[in-house]
Amino acid sequence: MTKKASTKIPHKIKKASRLSAFQRDIVISAIFSIGCVVAAFYWIQNFEEPRALTQRINTVTASSADHQRVIIREAIAQLSTRIQHQANNSELSKALAANDRSARDNFEQSLQRAFPEAVDSKIILLGPQGIADERSETNRLRNNIEIDMLRKSVSGDNTIIEAYSHNDSWLISFVAKVDKRGAILVTFSAKYFEKMLSNIAGNTVNNELIQSYKTRRDTVIRPASTEYAEAMQSRVLSVPGWTLQVYPQTQTVQTLRSDTTLLWLICVLCVAIIAASHAVFFVRGYRLPSPAQPAAKKAPVDKIESEALNLEQALAQKLAANRSRTASHQDNFPAPDSAPPLAELQQGRSAKAPKISTNCFRAYDIRGIADTELDDNSCVAIGRAVASEALSRGQSKILLGRDGRLSSPRIREALVSGLLSSGVDVVDLGLIATPMLHYACQYLNIGNAIMITGSHNPSQYNGMKISLEFQSLSGKDIQQLRHRIDAQDFEQGEGNLTNDSIEQRYIDRICGDVVIAQTLKVVIDAGNGATAHIAPALFEELGCEVIPLFCETDGNFPNHAPDPTIYENLAALREAVAEHHADIGIAFDGDGDRVAIVSAKGECPLADKLMMVLAKDMVERNPGAEILFDVKCSRLLPNLIIEHGGRPTMWKCGHSYMKRKMSETGALLGGEFSGHIFFKERWYGFDDGMYTAARLLEVLTLSGRTMDEALGSQTSLLSSPEIIIPVAEDRKFAIVETFAENQAFTEVTLTEIDGLRVDFRHGWGLIRASNTGPAITLRFEADSEAALSRIKNDFKDLLARIDPELADSL
């Protein structure tokens, strides 16, 4: 017995010694690892993040300063040009030479009408010494600075610009001579330029305008705050002695400041993972096999390989199943009726769902024939489904808007009934345009909305565009609503209905952002749609002379279909522009999220042409900016973006897809060939026809160009219109996929993000399934007629092998 005991004691002592050393190493490793993690996160928060924040503040402020300088420079240049144009009037020169007081007074009144934004405008007679000796003329001037400006104007041809203080306020005057016999003097309040800058800057920066003369420095425009003076950016302006100083606002700094809560949560998580993993090894130390214990046998190699093979097969089956499910939910592919909805499987519900058309649930909205596919029962069910989905996401309030279609009030009543019965509160904004509802989401900070609209479709159609948590529903999210209806997976409750109005706030927001530097005569064609009561008022407040056309809401659309991208629908607008000698014509679709333009010469540029005008301005002011466009757009657009220093990104068609992509990429501008244009710079990233038109007028007036001049500077290629071939709903995707799988084009670039776009050396062709109807669409562009015909024939030949009847339509 003694001998047996003596042989075990040394083994236990060795094992205990080995465990103690192992555990000590584990503890030391844990302490060291945790210390490194904490030190790294401390360095990031206290050293790296402040440095990065300073860099972000300086970058944003510098970008704003560059933008402000461009705005001031172009505004001054535009005003100088307008004043010089008045001074070059030969009739005015004759009136001054004849000392015709009556004619001069008439010209002065005309001058005041030409510059309604000015404090005052005058025509001053000049003598050999620079100003006439008559006291009547001298007394019309405020001070010696204006007298000196007149003297300077005699010796040069340039417009003289000075800022000076008068009666405790700052004024900015422009003087242009009229054939040495007189001069035009136009004076603005400095607040005019201050408002212009603040409108552009918004809540981003504060501006200070400094005028220097020798050792003297005067502040013409005072900033609201100089709290972050260390981040101030200074820019020299075109007027001698003028300097613009830009300071970031507190709101900008707070926006750029990173929230370190997540950083420290990650730190805590890392520490917890390190501690837990070391604890596992620490505990395992007690279970280390003794030297006498045999090691576990290794699994046979064949068994391991067999298991790996089984895993690969299981993974392949899972991927195939996922692809099958994805295809069933893709855009307009309804899920198989044989597959029971998820909610029904989970809850075992067997209540009979209302009969509802599956074709209504499209890629990025719900749409159908109002009286048959969107009857009252269907609309109540859709309301309950949307409300239940919102509640499942923790959302309890939904904004509601509608267009002017005859069926919209009925659908609104049914929809509200469904929403309220599921327990969500509804804020009804009445008859508005779709972008106004998107703006209301931002202004009221309610990210859930339903817009009742048939968009650009004929009068018998209607539908719903739905947003939850500031994201437009599309694809499988739309299908999920249908599954809820099939399964009767609805919440029960009692919501409240309130009413609100957003029109004036929407107008004020745009007028506070957009600067139109000269008065334009604009024809507005609302097409009897939802913009009829808002667009004329908006552009009048922006300073335009508005000629309304079809600006009475009428759900019958008696004058033309509410789709301005169809050339024939712009005939009346072209005639009105010509008749009234207007500078530009603007047309909106039925719900106001798309825009079309008619130039003074009657040109109707496609949306990718408009995008070229807007993108050039955007990337010149924001070097390196990303610009988004869809697969239908001309290849000239990305070429122009690259040429001017931007980054082009092609994406799939559809306003929901574009909005999400803009949010993901941070793109400042996006556009679709269908006329949806999205601004993220100074706006919110949704498609807005009225805001887009206002920004277009700003770009044109600040650059001093007409629409025709802007279009004339662009290169052109030959292109086809969008070709729409009717195809059964259940066949359109299969046809496009078959086309893509069987194509054998050589020396091409293939883009398959939305259908198939084939870029050849001398042009390109596109085939895709429509997301808005039972059809496939095609479009072609090329350098020459021969190349265009060749590409089109190549597509036609392949399509003929798939379905000869389709090829006959091409």
Name the poorly predicted regions: 1-18, 287-319, 325-351
Calculate the terminal CA-CA distance, rounded to whole Å. Answer: 102 Å
Report the major sheet.
7 strands, mixed
Q: What would you call the shape?
A: globular
Overall average pLDDT:
84
Structural class: alpha+beta
Q: Report the sheet-strand fraction.
A: 15-25%
**Radius of gyration, taken over Cα atoms and rounded to an integer in Å:** 34 Å
Total number of distinct structural domains: 4
Describe this protein with a few key phrases.
19% strand, alpha+beta, 810 residues, disordered N terminus, Alpha-D-Glucose-1,6-Bisphosphate, Chain A, domain 3, six-stranded antiparallel beta sheet
Describe this entry's structure for a reader.
This protein has 810 residues and is of the alpha+beta class. It contains 26 helices and 29 strands. The protein has 4 domains: 22-286, no CATH class; 369-501, Alpha-D-Glucose-1,6-Bisphosphate, Chain A, domain 3; 513-712, Alpha-D-Glucose-1,6-Bisphosphate, subunit A, domain 3 (Alpha-D-Glucose-1,6-Bisphosphate, Chain A, domain 3), CATH 3.40.120; 718-808, Alpha-D-phosphohexomutase, C-terminal domain (TATA-Binding Protein). Helices cover 46% and strands 19% of the residues. Strands 9, 10, 11, 12, 13, 14 and 15 form a 7-stranded mixed β-sheet that branches. Strands 24, 25, 26, 27, 28 and 29 form a 6-stranded antiparallel β-sheet that branches. It is globular and about 95 Å long. It starts with a helix and ends with a helix.
